[in-house]
Amino acid sequence: MLEGTLTALITPFRDGEVDETALRGHVERQIEAGVNGLVPCGSTGESATLSYNEHHRVIEITIDASAGRVPVIAGTGSNSTREAIDFTLHAKHAGADGALLLSPYYNKPTQEGIYQHYSAVARETALPLVVYNIPGRTASNLSPETIGRLARIENIIGVKESSGDLDQIAHIVARCPDDFCVVSGDDALTLPLLSVGGKGVISTTSNIAPDEVAELVHRFVSGDARGAREIHHRLLPLFDALFCETNPIPVKAAAATLGWCEDEIRLPLTPITEPNLEHLKVVMKDLGILR
After folding, report:
1. Which residues are identified as catalytic?
2. Were both Cys, which of 20, 150, 162, 288 would link to 134 (CB 3.0–4.6 Å)?
3. How far apart are alpha carbons 289 and 144 in whole angstroms?
4. Model pTM greater than 0.85?
């Protein structure tokens, strides 16, 4: 369920509330474009500013709208192990196929603490789990040794790697079983990660260009490395533009520019600056995304 291209979904808002109609439309758009799975309530989905009820509802809407056509890996992480277990149990009961959990943030646990955190969630929920390593947001880095230990837990099926360290990623792939999926959390590193044995990407960019991101991964795993490289080079300006400010500020602005949702983002994030918005529009026009 973790191979290929999975979209880290934005959460559309309207007048301060979750825009259910826009979210359902976005899910349909992603599936029609050929993505392999959906990940609601991650960083791109502004999970940090969703209330508990909104968090639950976004997951429920995504599962209902996808109607079993692609796997749904629900974001259920927290810096509280008990809360992460509660979020994950809700996702399981709602019908999610798995859960994505970022390492506990702010607390700065040791490697043993991180291991025990994931072990507890795995034990209490018995749902397929994906570890999420994103040191830039959590202030802790999962070592290859710790991920290797976690990979031996039956229902921990993979890791979303956003450390930006290809050497570390290669060591993780080498240390883990073949059926343990290492996927990229950085769009610009998807192709390099695939080259060292990764299995796919949980992508922000696929919110805006789902067909091309999916094709990049498909071409590489099908043996067409040159074709994958051509798509990667074509998308580089979009990767850059979509991360010119803190994610998901630019991708939310891009979706709004396309008329897919309102240009509404929650504090403490603020709307994209005008110069960056104009540059983003130019890139989207150059790629034929915006007409």
Report:
1. 132, 160
2. 162
3. 38
4. yes
